[in-house]
From TrEMBL:
<dbReference type="Pfam" id="PF00534">
    <property type="entry name" value="Glycos_transf_1"/>
</dbReference>
<dbReference type="InterPro" id="IPR001296">
    <property type="entry name" value="Glyco_trans_1"/>
</dbReference>
<keyword id="KW-0808">Transferase</keyword>
<feature type="domain" description="Glycosyltransferase subfamily 4-like N-terminal">
    <location>
        <begin position="31"/>
        <end position="137"/>
    </location>
</feature>
<dbReference type="Pfam" id="PF13439">
    <property type="entry name" value="Glyco_transf_4"/>
</dbReference>
<dbReference type="GO" id="GO:0016757">
    <property type="term" value="F:glycosyltransferase activity"/>
</dbReference>
<dbReference type="InterPro" id="IPR028098">
    <property type="entry name" value="Glyco_trans_4-like_N"/>
</dbReference>
<feature type="domain" description="Glycosyl transferase family 1">
    <location>
        <begin position="182"/>
        <end position="319"/>
    </location>
</feature>
<protein>
    <submittedName>
        <fullName>Glycosyltransferase family 4 protein</fullName>
    </submittedName>
</protein>
């Protein structure tokens, strides 16, 4: 059970360090789910009156104080052979000013654990990726006291020894997307072309229902051989249209005009940001029951949770019974950036309070002391 409450409490403003991955700018120019969420969280915290410093790439755009750790996002940076080097620089930049913050919020996986493990200032780490990797067992056995945030309850399952203090679902700015009407009469696939994302299933569903499928997805270098062998020829069918990567502004139209988003994943998805992007557009989601899907989806309300291609094909015929306005209202109730930030602020205050309970009163610093 989570140790920290999720109710919204009016509390003092904080000096917060947000430590982001450096692979993409904030916000990302194209693909980049983690960086996108860190951006939305940072901007919402500033909006709520907190003093936020963002440790990120220099081409990031933010209303927080930007501490640039590399000139541009590493994925698009030319001749970058060792991205780890810039993350070490990032930790050193943080080290020089760590005393200026009330709370440190890391989004850099476990890289910082040896550093944050020695600090007296409270810190918390949101884990954004999959945790069913064998080597992670050893990491979390060695670091059992790191404060961890999961992005779904399902994400936690592979490392029960992890010190998870809360699950905080992702959120989007309420006005980032608007409700569409599905007039495009096509199915949508948005994300990456990779084995775990299941684009072959999406194509199979589209062809079986004689429905156009638009694929807006990036192809990582690691997945290029898979694309060449398994996907490339499938894109030649007249019902299949490959668009490539799209930016945030293009998503509103792409998702809003779609009959439904297909999310035929074949892996334990930690969250699935595209599901709530579709909800923000009022677009139903047909999602395979893996990972976080049963937590994020409200079956028969925001779409359909299925267990096979056959069930997905049947779900396409039932889309007409769903309310796009109702789907949008679920997004507004559960998945806004404001709601996400409020949950994190409650965690911050609880961690700070817990830290101060364990030190002598005379040694407690005065938070937000006037200059």
């Amino acid at each position: 059970m989570d140790r920290y409450r999720s109710d919204t409490v009016k509390q003092r403003s904080l000096r917060i360090a947000q430590i982001a991955p450096l692979y993409e700018s904030l916000p990302p120019k194209l693909y980049g789910g983690t960086e996108r969420i860190v951006h939305y969280l940072t901007e919402e915290l500033v909006k709520q009156g907190h003093d936020v410093s963002l440790f990120a790439s220099g081409d990031s755009i933010t209303t927080a104080k930007l501490i640039a750790c590399v000139d541009e996002g590493l994925r698009l940076k030319r001749n970058c052979n060792d991205p780890l080097a810039y993350h070490i620089i990032q930790l050193q930049k943080l080290n020089t000013c760590v005393h200026e913050f009330d709370i440190l919020h890391f989004h850099t996986d476990y890289l910082h654990f040896p550093f944050s493990n020695t600090l007296k200032i409270p810190s918390v780490t949101t884990l954004h990726g999959r945790l069913d990797i064998p080597e992670l067992q050893d990491v979390y056995n060695v670091f059992p006291y790191q404060n961890l945030i999961s992005i779904s309850q399902n994400q936690r399952l592979p490392i029960p020894q992890g010190n998870f203090i809360k699950t905080v679902y992702h959120g989007l700015p309420e006005n980032l997307h608007h409700q569409g009407d599905g007039e495009g009469e096509y199915l949508a696939f948005l994300g990456r072309i990779s084995p775990e994302k299941g684009v072959e299933r999406a194509i199979e569903i589209a062809l079986a229902t004689n429905t156009k499928l638009k694929i807006a997805a990036k192809i990582d270098k690691a997945d290029f051989a898979y694309y060449e062998k398994n996907i490339k020829l499938l894109l030649d069918h007249p019902l299949i249209e490959y668009i490539g990567e799209i930016n945030e502004q293009q998503k509103t139209t792409f998702l809003g005009k779609a009959k439904a988003l297909l999310f035929p994943i074949a892996w334990p998805e930690p969250f699935g940001l595209v599901m709530i992007e579709a909800m923000a557009c009022g677009t139903p989601v047909i999602a395979f029951q893996n990972g976080s899907v049963p937590e994020i989806m409200e079956n028969n309300v925001t779409g359909f949770v299925v267990n096979s291609v056959a069930e997905a094909i049947d779900a396409v015929s039932r889309l007409k019974y769903l309310s796009r306005g109702g789907i949008r209202r679920v997004f507004e109730r559960r998945f806004t950036a404001a709601h996400m930030a409020e949950n994190y602020v409650n965690v911050y205050h609880s961690l700070i309070d817990d830290t101060f309970k364990n030190v002598p009163r005379s040694s407690i610093p005065i938070l937000n002391k006037p200059a």
